């Protein structure tokens, strides 16, 4: 790779390292977005909302229905319609954000899987599984300096992979 190629690269060692360091946070954010999407779908239905606006009130052991004017019903229906529109927009925004985040996480995992075995194993344990250097030293029976070397070499290869794809856009 010549110097002019390096100046056109969008992804640097630091940027890819930051992406890897943020992987666990991305995972938490994706989980939170999934929860919010599920919660959005549990919002009360139109008929439940309109029933609640009918001004029912408890009277002893029974519930006495109140009187809802046409105006109250129209307000409830209008409010419900606007709430549906807001919820659809919110759901769409959450879905887009979740899709982008999921794609980024899957891309990171896939690119790591394409690396030579030692590099892949070290990066996967460090960033995807959240192992510490000490845990990898024990599990892989490697020195800390070897782990750092495989990590550096792996990240350099990831930089090339990310820039290859970025250069196509």
Give the low-pLDDT segments.
1-5
Could you tell me the radius of gyration in angstroms? Answer: 27 Å
Q: How would a crystallographer describe the biggest sheet?
A: 2 strands, antiparallel
Number of domains: 1
Strand order of the largest sheet: 1-2
Question: Which outline best applies?
Answer: elongated
Structural class: mainly alpha
Number of distinct beta strands: 2
Output the number of helix runs: 8
Structure keywords:
single chain; 169 residues; mainly alpha; disordered N terminus
Set down the secondary structure blueprint:
Blueprint: H1 3-7, H2 13-21, H3 23-40, H4 46-52, E1 57-59, E2 62-64, H5 70-113, H6 117-128, H7 133-140, H8 144-166
Antiparallel strand pairs: 1-2
Helix pairs in contact: 3-5, 6-8
Textual characterization of the structure:
With 169 residues, this protein is mainly alpha-helical. It has one domain. Helices cover 75% and strands 4% of the residues. The chain has a two-stranded antiparallel ribbon with strand order 1-2. Strand 1 and strand 2 form a beta hairpin. The N terminus is likely disordered.
């Amino acid at each position: 790779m010549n110097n002019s190629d390096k100046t056109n690269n969008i992804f640097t060692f630091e940027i890819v390292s930051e992406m890897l360091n943020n992987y666990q946070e991305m995972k938490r954010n994706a989980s939170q977005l999934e929860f919010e999407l599920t919660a959005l779908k549990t919002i009360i239905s139109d008929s439940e909302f309109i029933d609640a606006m009918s001004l029912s009130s408890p009277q002893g052991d029974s519930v006495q229905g109140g009187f809802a004017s046409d105006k109250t019903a129209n307000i409830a229906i209008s409010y419900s319609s606007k709430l549906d529109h807001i919820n659809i927009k919110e759901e769409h925004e959450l879905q887009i954000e979740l899709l982008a985040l999921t794609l980024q996480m899957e891309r990171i995992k896939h690119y790591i899987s394409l690396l030579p075995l030692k590099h892949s194993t070290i990066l996967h344990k460090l960033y995807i599984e959240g192992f510490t250097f000490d845990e990898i030293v024990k599990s892989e029976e490697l020195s800390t300096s070897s782990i750092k070397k495989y990590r550096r070499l792996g990240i350099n290869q990831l930089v090339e992979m990310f820039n290859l794809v970025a250069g196509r856009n």
